[in-house]
Design a protein that fits this description.
The structure is a homodimer.
Chain A: E1 5-9, H1 20-27, E2 31-36, H2 43-47, E3 57-62, H3 73-88, E4 93-97, H4 107-114, E5 120-123, H5 128-136, E6 147-151, H6 156-165, E7 168-172, H7 178-187, E8 194-198, E9 206-209, E10 221-226
Parallel strand pairs in A: 1-4, 1-5, 2-3, 2-4, 6-7
Antiparallel strand pairs in A: 7-10, 8-9, 8-10
Helix pairs in contact in A: 3-4
Chain lengths: 234, 234
Amino acid sequence: MTGKLYGVGTGPGDPELVTRRAWSLIESANVIAYPAPDSGESFARSIVADAIQPDAVEIPMVVPMRPGRAPAQSIYDEGADAIAEQLDAGNDVVVLCEGDPLFYGSFMYLLVRLRDRFEAEIVPGVTSLSACASAQTHPLVARSDILTVLPGTLDDVALEQAITRSQAVAIMKVGRHMTRLRSLIDRLGLLGKALYTSHASLPHERACSLDDAPADAPYFSMILIYKGDDPWIS
Amino acid sequence: MTGKLYGVGTGPGDPELVTRRAWSLIESANVIAYPAPDSGESFARSIVADAIQPDAVEIPMVVPMRPGRAPAQSIYDEGADAIAEQLDAGNDVVVLCEGDPLFYGSFMYLLVRLRDRFEAEIVPGVTSLSACASAQTHPLVARSDILTVLPGTLDDVALEQAITRSQAVAIMKVGRHMTRLRSLIDRLGLLGKALYTSHASLPHERACSLDDAPADAPYFSMILIYKGDDPWIS
């Protein structure tokens, strides 16, 4: 009998924001896999480190971080092979995914390689989107509003169109696009309604207006725009 | 000293998809508040019922469910007053919120009434958006895609524009708009790419193609559209 593949969301960063199901799956996992940078610690693993069994088999998938470029698919080929070997041996494999596995996550690259041969279950997690709104104590989206989620890597034309057409906007992966994004939002007259959050839910979380945000924003930062004058009062 | 207001996400329905922090806050809460229907059980309360202390003070806010109409704001005035009374007496109050408190939630109506007088903290939760994608074992959004979240209550023109302009679309609150939404999506040639989910993460969850979905969709149902041919492979 083959093992089962679990794609498990670890949430935005605070170990307390992991779901009960994710935590207990990780606690009982004999094999875990996770993305890891070239050097340093895996963020997903660090969130749930206290739940991992000391003798668990660990499969780190080293994904080089190069801004603006998707990692080589060979990394996921190799990761999927290592995971498949465990599944074929009858071991369940828990793949740790920052945030939610299916929301801009790399888990889908593993899923597409393994879904036809193995049973798969996804455990959803709290997204950075929800964590940033919580950090700001400010609604993300309300009533019959349209919410648009955009990567900051898009060009100005695409961003402007989407921002113009929505009541609520979240721009993810701000990072090195900070200066350009702030100029664009200022030009659209929305600087006073834009909020900046980095490392939401972590001890070094920063939540402020976009106007007060640092120019050297980290990759894990987000801009939220809600257009109305406190439109959530009615 | 006044108490602290907690807006706590209870996630999509499965008690196991509550975060560790939400669960422990509820377990230690002396006062909880939650929205409740005219008759029957509060959904948010039912999710975390096993965590609630038997002697906790409970403040149900009865919100009549009338499709297409926002509930009277007097309900939130009264709810906020009852909560403020507890906070003024020095008791913390945990407000239970289905899904995530700031994602199309009614918690914001309480927050806006109480935020100037009391300390408030939000505990984000897993949204129905993530739960539906998980139920389908299908990516919600990937790479540099634009994700648009739309209430099914919008008119056809607004829906068509938003669907046309995004790679990934989630239509919430399908309910009685099912037939109209399915016709629209069919007309746009996207029926083969549309997924239907109701009651995600609950025992009576239904996850199928939109083509196979029932005409009498419940309020808590969602349509997900991802336009590419398995675009998450690259």
